[in-house]
Amino acid sequence: MALIVHKYGGTSMGSTERIRLVAKRVAKWARAGHQMVVVPSAMSGETNRLLGLAKELSPQHEDSAHQRELDMLASTGEQASSALLAIALQAEGIEAVSYAGWQVPIRTNNAFTKARIESIDDQRVRQDLQAGRVVIITGFQGVDEDNNITTLGRGGSDTSAVAVAAALKAHECLIFTDVDGVYTSDPRVVPEARRLKTVSFEEMLEMASLGSKVLQIRSVEFAGKYKVPLRVLSSFTEWDIDIDEEAQSGTLITFEEDEQMEQAIVSGIAFNRDEAKISVISVPDKPGIAYQILGAVAQANIEVDMIIQNISKDGKTDFSFTVHRNDYSRAMDLLKAKVLPALGNPDVSGDTKICKVSIVGIGMRSHVGVASKMFRSLSEEGINIQMISTSEIKTSVVIDEKYMELAVRALHKAFDLEQNQA
Amino acid sequence: MALIVHKYGGTSMGSTERIRLVAKRVAKWARAGHQMVVVPSAMSGETNRLLGLAKELSPQHEDSAHQRELDMLASTGEQASSALLAIALQAEGIEAVSYAGWQVPIRTNNAFTKARIESIDDQRVRQDLQAGRVVIITGFQGVDEDNNITTLGRGGSDTSAVAVAAALKAHECLIFTDVDGVYTSDPRVVPEARRLKTVSFEEMLEMASLGSKVLQIRSVEFAGKYKVPLRVLSSFTEWDIDIDEEAQSGTLITFEEDEQMEQAIVSGIAFNRDEAKISVISVPDKPGIAYQILGAVAQANIEVDMIIQNISKDGKTDFSFTVHRNDYSRAMDLLKAKVLPALGNPDVSGDTKICKVSIVGIGMRSHVGVASKMFRSLSEEGINIQMISTSEIKTSVVIDEKYMELAVRALHKAFDLEQNQA
User: Fold this and answer.
1) Quick check: ipTM above 0.85?
2) How is domain B260-422 classified at the CATH fold level?
């Protein structure tokens, strides 16, 4: 029997009826002899309700004293849902105790609303586990060294669960969510998309950052860092599904290099259409240009994704980057007002009707020709590539957004992802 | 300028609009140069909402592990309202910080759902006050020595405010509520009832236990023990009322003997019709009888108020007591099943259509004939007295409930309470 961490999202905790079902599922695992730690999110809608009240009183801003109070406020959502889950487990006849982040304690830095976990004390939790209790730990929150409550930011409950699993050296961390695993691509776009039984951390990392919204990216980084076996699975199966079957369901995110040996070269096709591209044309190709352009953008807190600069011609080069579509106008205004005048007012062009499509696969590290196969496949469909960017296990292209579905399906087929696979 | 504690009840904190008004009132006091500590209740309805969710999952019961979770759950209400008030104050341009009970910390014993405060550490709060911040401390809750969250039970926020004021040696603790002070009697029954500018602790204690629902009785005990000047006043005045006028409004509950010297003999007429009386007739007058009867009642967690036993005749005596009307049937059943058989099945009678009317006044200690004046006044109205019980500063009678209003008005007049008074 093993030490297991379960994490349940806000939808799974969305009503007392759902909380009862979570309790029955956890009770099943506890009765099977496992030492159980559960990390729940707040009941769905609760965090937004609380922050909505705060917004009625004051617009949200960066002031640290203000953000400290937002964390005091928002952290109550998980404390309440954790206590309710403990009560539901007790009603099932299971001994259970809930702890807020500060009671464990889960120590974080003091970056309110986006704190980072620094350490987790496992002593109290271990005592409870040894006494046969299910331990429920609030997700999303911790406490800084001055005993102020902090929160980890959106999706932070995944990170909490992984961090707790790492601190307790858990056998596995099961993330129960509303999807039943990680797919080779989005089944709504590619009906032939197939659930992966395993996926490597690196691939998961690339897929998460590319828009597979299954797991919060920081939780995957954390799991990789501490080598926590992570499983994504559905909380919408019947609670009394056979436990051995459940333990093998979903997608296991692995960290062992060896396990990847037999893996396909490309594991999945990711895509998103949340971005817009901006190109500054014919700027002098001299040191400091990239910083001059992107420094101003970063200072305005605009996140930049792809950055492309090609070789120069006649001492001039073109400089392109992508930002979130919501930031497009702000970035453009900023460039025109503050950056371009200092560069001699070069031309600037932009396009919001683009999408990014990526192939992701740990096998790309050791296989040549993967990118060119991607480009050929797109070319055969008559799709023009506007930008290319590559990393060790990923190749991304920017194309006209109207071709997105076509491109994703073509690539899914080209890399044989729809085949049945062990 | 002084250190002042404000306490605001759930109705005052009932919406963001109301919280904004509380913030404006507190800001006014802070701007006048006072060091401000504020103890808010949860937003009205929130505690019941949370405990309602728990009830859907499990019936409430006495198990300590269960009650621990109820406290984890219920304490979130005050944490959220405290953070919201801090945010509202910051929006007013006032530096503010909120603390949950465990952050102060407010140490209690571990009697979950009805904990008692044992100590309050004032260090962190003082640092903030010295730095010019308004400090908001969650009412109703504390933390036991094992870092479990505890709550103080219904009305516990009043107790929190008084305890905080005691720990900080505050100049005054202002309890803002939905009434504008303590009256000589209930204005709904006695239209001539007059607000008392001051009332002694002892009187307040008697009035609170007799049904003046202005303040939670434990908070008054606490204030008396630590000699915290306590003022009850309305939170429904305009927030921008002149601060000197506000500081003199409501009713001041005093602990100085000297201040009582000029006080009237009787300060108020209290009453309630929540009780029922039970009499056991002609029981043997021998040692242990009172315990035999009341021990069983107490073991069943039934609270007894008045207890009367008169001198015996022929070795027999009558024994009467009052209980809450809700407990009447249970107490009767218990007596008949378990107590009376052992006493030779004496007759028992009961009456739920009674009321208790009391005159309360610290002056009674030093004045004779106060009780007899009360009895004469009732007799003149043709009201029969069924039971009498007296304490140092109170005389209570039980009468037929249909005479309650008549009795209260007659006594209010007999003791000249409607007169204008300094």
Assistant:
1) no
2) VC0802-like (3.30.2130)
